[in-house]
Amino acid sequence: MIKKCLFPAAGYGTRFLPATKATPKEMLPVLTKPLIQYGVEEAVEAGITTMAIVTGRGKRAIEDHFDRSYELEHQIKGSSKEALMDEIRSIIAACTFSYTRQIAMKGLGHAILTGETLIGDEPFAVVLADDLCTNNGGSVLHQMIEVYEKYQCSIVAIEEVPMEETHKYGIIAGDLVDGTDNIYRVSNMVEKPAPEDAPTNMAIIGRYILTPDIFDILRETKPGKGGEIQITDALLEQAKQGKVIAYKFEGKRFDCGSIDGFVEATNHFYSKI
Length: 273
Prior knowledge:
two-stranded antiparallel ribbon, five-stranded mixed beta barrel
């Protein structure tokens, strides 16, 4: 059973400046909910109620969002607006939130390693709030947990991307397993390769299930692409032992780390109202 979900949320969000100068990018709203709330809701749908969030300077709004606001609740009590708080109230009541700070931005691998103190020695999920995922059935994280229960190793979510976009992602290579058409045993992983160097067009998106030995591997992982500690490099060490599965998920993913993806997500969710 996966009990904890880690949210790396210390990044600067520079692609959305000046909006993110004083507002965490994870708090940018798609309609009326911030990105990170969608991620927490996905974790809750997957049966996870312990949220571990790696923050940084200027991220206080995230902690405030997942806390009671007594003055606001008093002001809207008994009004038609009170119902607008129902979703976030239920999340606060159902979940436990813990926080630690990433002092320096040294890559996703470093952010995950920073979260070790919140996770401990157990398998855990990772959600990047930038990647907003939706599905009519079970959430992407729910699907991945089912895959983990079968294979008992690290799981990465993947989707096919245009070859000219491989330089934006970690790219995997592998072989289909157990007669499936969407589950691969990973044999190679490359961080943000140029199209001519990419082994495939199957890109890792912001959903992971990681086994706790990843922390020891990350401690030994040298800075890679961009001078950062890459989770892709650490996962490659597990893949060499046959311990990484890539899962081509069911659903749709919006890259809300980009303006185009953010607008696309907003239009999608607005069309569902």
